[in-house]
Amino acid sequence: MPIASAATAPTRAELVDHLVRTRIAGEVATPRENNLSHYRRLANGDRHYWFGLEFGDRWTDEQDILAVMAERCGVNDDPHHRQGQDTIDPELTVDALDRAAALLRKAAAGKQRVLFATGHPGGLLDVHRATAEALRAAGCEIVVIPDGLRADDGMVFQFGDVAMLERGATLWHTHSPEPMAAILDGLERDGRPLPDLVMADHGWAGCAAQRGLDAIGFADSNDPALFLAESEGTLRTTIPLDDHVLSPRHYDPLTAYLLDAAGVS
């Protein structure tokens, strides 16, 4: 049954059904070939797939990465499955949302400083924006980033309390850690405190976690770095999901569930 409004949080069962129907989880659009290619590239030391994290020589076997992705994301664990459909387990998505909610609840209770950022403005911007709004209403300080930051031939700026990369008046899809590095370096340069918590995705979350900050990250099935970081304890929790489905409105019930579970809706 479709969820009509994001104002009312779905139950766990309703959210799982919604995630599968909208292909945020379940049988997702990202093909198996693409997943395995990215796991292999990370294993081969391609830092584009490390998302600002430092793995040393700990993840040089593609099969080890596949095992973590099966456990924490829900992709098919059969190493002989090389082509075709792959999956994200919606139960794992909701489990991760519950872990994230616990961190948001703690942030609200402690009136913490929280930074939001996204490299997927076409899909996840409103998830971050709505969460920032709810935490501000609960008494948190939403970190304002310094002006004039540059990274990756673009400007790092904030829109709706969410940091993003802008190039040529366009919000940019990026997995790079450099924009987050520019933010954290800029805060330190200005003598301002770093965030107590970062909620971000991809390289933005990876960079924050590598700097020792508590971080919540969103990641797709073809982006293993954050799941590996979570398995090592570097990143607090990684939420598995398809990060760019047909409509950004499909993420509204997920956001409603997260905020309700955190007690800040």
Produce the secondary structure layout.
Layout: H1 12-21, E1 26-27, H2 32-43, H3 62-72, E2 87-88, H4 90-109, E3 113-116, H5 121-137, E4 141-142, E5 149-151, E6 154-159, E7 162-167, E8 170-172, H6 178-189, E9 197-201, H7 202-210, E10 214-219, H8 225-232, E11 237-240, H9 252-262
Parallel strand pairs: 3-4, 3-9, 9-10, 10-11
Antiparallel strand pairs: 1-2, 5-6, 6-7, 7-8
InterPro entries: Phosphatase_SCO2771
Protein name: Phosphatase
Pfam families: Phosphatase (PF15698)
Tell me what you see in this structure.
The protein is an alpha/beta fold. The protein is built from 9 helices and 11 strands. The strands form 3 sheets. A 5-stranded parallel β-sheet has the order 4-3-9-10-11, with helices on both faces. Strands 5-6-7-8 form a 4-stranded antiparallel β-sheet. Strands 1-2 form a two-stranded antiparallel ribbon. Helix 5 packs parallel to helix 9 (252-262) and helix 6 packs across helix 7 (202-210). The longest helix has 20 residues, at 90-109. Mean pLDDT is 95; it is low at 1-6. Pfam families: Phosphatase (PF15698). InterPro entries: Phosphatase_SCO2771. This is Phosphatase.
